[in-house]
Structures are given as structure tokens and as C-alpha cells.
């Protein structure tokens, strides 16, 4: 027996088209939450580093390492703050997509508008991914600074799976 008997297939398509962006809205919310957590951790770490910097004597070489790390952390924070703004932009884009799809029959919204709105959201998610990868790279740079300071007088051990330099 056909389950679609008596059901307008175009209505099902409209509902599906409206629900797909809703799933993307949830994804944006999860992404924004993760970005917010990272930003909060960076802010806390920045405060810890500044407290350490202030407690060190002026001639302590650790102060220079902390300055460099704070500069890296500032760049990471900026990247992630921008990514957070884009996550909310994508979220708005997906909500708008749902509204446009649901309004098509009633208000004659052109077919291209929901597609454009959805595409903008997808592009924003792609840019967020690029920013997150750039932030990871900067995080590795900060770790490299710490490693150099820690192993200044000794040979730096290579992580498992990497060859020694």
C-alpha cells in the first residue's frame, strides 16, 4: 500500500525544505557553543599569563616568552571571535532559508531566494572551518614557544611517530 495516498507530495517537499535548514540551525548552535567555550578558555589562560608576567622580575627571560604567547593568543581569540560572529550569521541565514521556503506558496517568494540564503550559510560554515584551522595552527605555535623554552639547553624530543631533527 502506498503511504503517500491522499498526501500532496509538494507539501512534503516544502516541509523537507524547511526542516533541512533547521538541522543546520542546530549545527550552528553546537558550533557556536564550542567556539564560545574555546574563547572563554583563552580568556582565562590570558589572565593567568598576565598574572604570571606581572609577578616575574623585569629581567626574567620568561616574560618575553609570555609576551609572544599573549600575542599568539590574541590572534587566536580574534579568529575565533570572528568565527563566532559567522556562526550566528550562518544560523540567521538558515532560519531565513526556512522562512523563505515556508513563505513561497503564500507570498510568491522566488525559488532562488531560499537557495541563495542556504548557500550563504554553507559558505559561512566553510569560512568558520578555515578560521578554526588557523586557530589550531596558532595554538601549535604557542606550544612550540613553550617547548623551546623548556628544552632550551637540551635536545628537543620528537613526538611519537615523528623523526628527530
SSE order and pairing:
Blueprint: H1 9-55, H2 62-107, H3 112-150
Rounded average pLDDT: 88
Report the strand count: 0
- What pattern of helices and strands is seen along the backbone? HHH
Contiguous helical run count:
3
Residues in β-strands, percent: under 5%
Your description of this structure?
There is one protein chain. This protein is mainly alpha-helical and 165 residues long. The chain has three helices and no strands. α2 (62-107) runs antiparallel to α3. The longest helix is centred in the first third of the chain and has 47 residues, at 9-55. The radius of gyration is 24 Å and the shape is elongated. It starts with 8 loop residues before the first helix and ends in a 15-residue tail after the last helix. The model has no long low-confidence stretch (mean pLDDT 88).
How would you summarize this macromolecular structure in one to three sentences?
The chain is an all-alpha fold and 165 residues long. The chain has helices spanning 9-55, 62-107, 112-150. The model has no long low-confidence stretch (mean pLDDT 88).
Spell out the key features of this protein.
165 residues; 0% strand
Amino acid at each position: 500500500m502506498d503511504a503517500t495516498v491522499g498526501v500532496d507530495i509538494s507539501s512534503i517537499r516544502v516541509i523537507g525544505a524547511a526542516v533541512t535548514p533547521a538541522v543546520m540551525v542546530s549545527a550552528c548552535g553546537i558550533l557556536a557553543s564550542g567556539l564560545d567555550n574555546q574563547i572563554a578558555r583563552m580568556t582565562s589562560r590570558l589572565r593567568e599569563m598576565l598574572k604570571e608576567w606581572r609577578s616575574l622580575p623585569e629581567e626574567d627571560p620568561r616574560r618575553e616568552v609570555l609576551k609572544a604567547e599573549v600575542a599568539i593568543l590574541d590572534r587566536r581569540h580574534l579568529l575565533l571571535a570572528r568565527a563566532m560572529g559567522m556562526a550566528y550569521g550562518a544560523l540567521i541565514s538558515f532560519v531565513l532559508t526556512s522562512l523563505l521556503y515556508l513563505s513561497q506558496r503564500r507570498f510568491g517568494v522566488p525559488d532562488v531566494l531560499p537557495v541563495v540564503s542556504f548557500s550563504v550559510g554553507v559558505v559561512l560554515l566553510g569560512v568558520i572551518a578555515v578560521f578554526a584551522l588557523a586557530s589550531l595552527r596558532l595554538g601549535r605555535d604557542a606550544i612550540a614557544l613553550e617547548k623551546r623554552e623548556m628544552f632550551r639547553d637540551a635536545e628537543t624530543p620528537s613526538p611519537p611517530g615523528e623523526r628527530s631533527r
